[in-house]
Amino acid sequence: MRWGFGLGNPVLSQTDPDTGYRFQPNQKVVRFGKTLEYNQYSQRSDPTTRNKPANTFRILMVGDSVLNGGNPVDQTETISEQLEAQLSTSGRSVEVLNASAGSWGIGNQLGYLRQFGTLDCDVLILQIGTHDLTQPMSSGDRVGVDVNYPDRDPVLALEEAVRRYLIPKLQPYFPSPKIPAEIPATSSEQQQFQQNMERFRAIVAAARQEQTAVAVLYTPNWTDVLPTPSSPPYKAEFFQVLSRLNVPAIDVHADWSALPAATVEPYFRDSVHLSVEGNQAVARLLARTNFLTSLTEARSQFLQPQKIHQTFKTSREMRVNTQTTPTNYDSTLHLYKTTFVMLSSLALIPQYFLPNRVKNFNSVPNGNSQPDRVWLSRP
Fold first, then answer.
1. Using CA atoms, how far apart are residues 144 and 211, in angstroms rounded to an integer?
2. Which residue of 181, 187, 278, 363 lies most exposed, with the fewest beta carbons within 10 A?
3. Would you call 77 helix, strand, or coil by DSSP?
């Protein structure tokens, strides 16, 4: 069982004060023939560096189990890996990082960025689904208690087979210990939506002060598109927020709603999660906007080929020295970069995003907050 199915060697999680929980770093396992690897930043990606390699366009995607894929999806079949493969066909060096975990909400995404920052990325893509709009931040109460969130390897492969796969099927006949809810309950969806929008605004403001472009990948549930398309709750309100913030959205719900049901059905493996075919469809949708390619080309025109991003400090470093101002910036390069971001927001992005589904972004908000303090405020 251990060698044939990977039982006894599960992907491990850990509790975390910022993210609630995340996958333990630096692990690689094979489960039921599928490879799952997590790097030093708990991302479902290959090991990487805090500062991106020279002449590399880096994208950081942050999301929940839809982006992660889980055990049924091989490392190469995730949305992020599919997108990286498609963008790399042009010959450019592209890196797409995948920071995600099951049941992460917008609050968990903010917590991850507080802890690790944007990792010198050019574009931050937040994968947000219909259910995320009114979901509270998930806690780590289940880690080490729920068999689906193990924090250590079982002694025997047979132990995991029984506890994780056999006993749950017998639960209707036998009482089971009480396990904390995977997603905390909320008393008011409207209030939770408003709180999530505050967290979302905090992410956008902080990323833009890091001179990082922000976009949203909006993913639907099965019932949003099948058997007939419908309007997901709070989507309209969310897109009003995106419009006011000038955050572009890649609207998978709108794209799939225009397709025949027979085409869309294979894109789901259950009511929320996507199949490998669905992951490929999302990656194609992201790649064919040419948004990322346009940014790469524009960046090379305005900037000298040297790193000018300020290294993002972790939350621990920021707490020690919260008064530090950015250093090592060449004033001319900084002016070029600001000009590039402004021109991108005004001219480049609208040409390449899907028409009528996205808005361009304003890169630098008004305000006097220091860039190395932007992730500290907690809405």
1. 38
2. 187
3. helix
Which domains are present in the chain?
Answer: 43-143+187-373 (3.40.50.1110)
DSSP, res 249: E
Cα dihedral 253→255→259→263 (10° resolution): -70
The answer to whether the beta carbons of residues 151 and 14 sit under 8 Å apart is: yes
Each residue's pLDDT tens digit, 71-88: 999 999 999 999 999 999
- Please say whether the beta carbons of 322 and 372 come within 8 A: yes
CA distance 205 to 158: 49
Model confidence over 193-237: pLDDT tens digits? 999 999 999 999 999 999 899 999 999 999 999 999 999 999 999
Q: What are phi and psi of 57, to 5 degrees?
A: -95, 115
Q: What's the length of the chain?
A: 379
**Short-list 138, 51, 59, CA closest to 95:** 59
Rounded-to-integer distance, Cα 254 and Cα 365, Å: 29
CB 102 within 8 A of CB 70: yes
Q: What residues contact 79, with CB distance under 8 A and at least 6 apart?
A: 61, 66, 67, 69, 98, 127, 274, 279, 282, 283, 286
Tokens representing 222 are: 């099965």
**Phi, psi (degrees; rounded to nearest 5) at 8:** 90, 0
In angstroms, the CA 79 to CA 217 distance is: 11
The pTM assigned to this predicted structure is: 0.78
Q: How far apart are CA 210 and CA 222, in angstroms?
A: 36
Place of tokens 């094979």: 30
Of 377, 20, 19, 17, nearest to 209 (Cα)?
Answer: 377
